[in-house]
Write a structure and sequence with these properties.
single chain; 222 residues; globular; Glutathione S-transferase Yfyf (Class Pi), Chain A, domain 2; five-stranded mixed beta sheet; Glutaredoxin; 9 helices
Amino acid sequence: MPKPPETSPIALPILYSFRRCPYAIRARLAIVQAGVAVQLREVVLRDKPEVLRDASPKATVPVLVLPDGQVLEESFDILQWALSDYEQGTWRPAEPSGLRELIAHNDGEFKRNLDGYKYPDRHLEKSREEYRAAGELWLAELDHRLMLSPYLAGAHPGAADIAVFPFVRQFVNTDAEWFATTGYRALSAWLTAWLASPLFISVMNKYVPWQPGDEPMVFPSP
């Protein structure tokens, strides 16, 4: 992971984030992997700051506000922005072919099943078990991919892994005992490796929620 350049905190992009949100984890992983620096503003989802609402009316995290005023409201856009200096290889956002389709399925059908599985009281169209069974189809697909190569894009880690990993983590954590019975050995090994990786550990520090007037919090820490 490259070291972020020395830059005045005032000139840095501002990242609104929430520690446990898988979309925000994706964005933070990309930022640290790329070696770029941002101002981190941890938010409380039930009490979102007005400046976040002003920047992005939908006020969902992550949101990245660039110094020129441009606002990136989607985690995949932040991932692309952070990793844009990679000219080739698995970390380049445009590679491998099929990355957009992979993320579209993960963020679409799988995320809907994840939400129904994790929060069944909010999603009454199906039972918790039905949501889990539907989500498991994606786990099986990922396990098959990982039986063929150690990472989703091949022999080396890349953008596909950090884009998908936070969501698999959340699905598995919903009922770890159940996941242990599934026999997805390749997926389990991949998940375990990412959970123990310095990259993941570095983005999961706890921060005090940001308040107007706080000193800028540089992320990752210099």
